[in-house]
Design brief:
This protein is α+β, with helices and mostly antiparallel strands and 82 residues long. 30% of the residues lie in helices and 24% in strands. It has a domain of 51 residues. A hairpin with a 5-residue loop joins strand 2 and strand 3. The radius of gyration is 17 Å and the shape is flat. The two termini are 22 Å apart.
Length: 82
């Protein structure tokens, strides 16, 4: 997607253009944004796997449709995990 936003501009990068477009879509209520904490799993020592809680935050975007709002509600209720 970022390659498709390749701008012939020195004023902003493709990532900045994408972030701006997403912000405008949220402001127009075309998209709904949800900030989600995503837990990462890292392998432990030896053959065992340990789950170290070292999450980070991501913005998830949903279309502002019935199905999009339903999916967002499921994530908020914990029925769908990131």
């Amino acid at each position: 997607m970022l390659r498709g936003l390749n701008l012939d501009s020195e004023l902003r990068t493709s990532l900045q253009a994408l972030e701006d477009a997403l912000e405008r879509a949220v402001a127009r209520n075309t998209l709904i944004r949800l900030e989600v904490e995503v837990q990462s799993q890292r392998p432990g020592r030896g053959s065992q796997q340990s789950k170290e809680q070292g999450g980070h935050w991501e913005d998830w975007y949903f279309l502002n449709t019935v199905k999009g709002r339903q999916a967002l509600a499921l994530v908020r209720q914990g029925e769908r995990k990131p």
